[in-house]
Amino acid sequence: MENIINFIEGEIVFYNKQNKKFKSLEQLIKIISDEYEKGATPELIRLKGIDEFGKFYKLFLDFNSFTIQELSQEEHKIISSNRQKYLGDILIEAGIITKNQLRQALQEQIKSNSKEKIGEILIKLGYCSAEQIIKTLSKQFGIIKKD
User: Fold this and answer.
1) Between these two residues, 82 and 48, which has the higher pLDDT value?
2) What is the mean pLDDT of residues 84-107?
3) Suppose 71 and one of 9, 57, 75, 138 were both cysteines; which one would form an S-S bond, judging by CB atoms 3.0 to 4.6 Å apart?
4) How does pLDDT run across 123-142, given as a tens digit for each residue?
């Protein structure tokens, strides 16, 4: 099971010894891109994050060489269209369940150590119906028309 990182911050150290702080992955990418255009190359990235269960993570990326390439519009469309959202996120966006209900279902899944799918757990906990899950998945995969 993948953990979802809810909070992220960090610092980028460039070879010119300039340091830049960031509070999101979007900021990280923008800073690196902007500084790269000015000729600055990142040497090290220190990153800290907290997942949905309050567990802390640290990541250090040390670069010997670094390259940035801008994606073509076609590559961007392919990546965006292939990115699949998790069922829980889709159910939250649809207003069927809350973030807290998803968090509780994920905790139940971890505690039980079973192969039970998150949809099955959400149904068992009474947070949604099988029909709601089937309808949501059908919309996601284009089987039925979105409202």
Assistant:
1) 48
2) 87
3) 75
4) 999 999 999 988 877 776 66
In a 10 Å sphere around its CB, with 0-12 CB exposed, 13-18 middle and 19+ buried, how is residue 97 labelled? buried
SS3 of 30, please? helix
CA dist 124 and 137 (Å) reads: 18
Phi/psi at 45 (nearest 5 deg)?
-125, 125
Indicate the pLDDT class of residue 64, thresholds 50, 70 and 90. low
pTM of the predicted model, to two decimals? Answer: 0.44
Task: Tell me how far apart the alpha carbons of residues 49 and 24 are, in angstroms, rounded to a whole number.
Answer: 10
Task: Identify the sign of the CA torsion 72, 74, 80, 83.
Answer: negative
Q: Quickly tell me which residue has 């902007």 as its tokens.
A: 34
Tokens 């919309």, residue located: 139
Residue pair 39/15 in contact (Cβ under 8 Å)? The answer is no
Residue 47 has which token pair?
Answer: 């990153």
Nearest residue to 125 (alpha-carbon basis) of 94, 93, 85, 98: 98
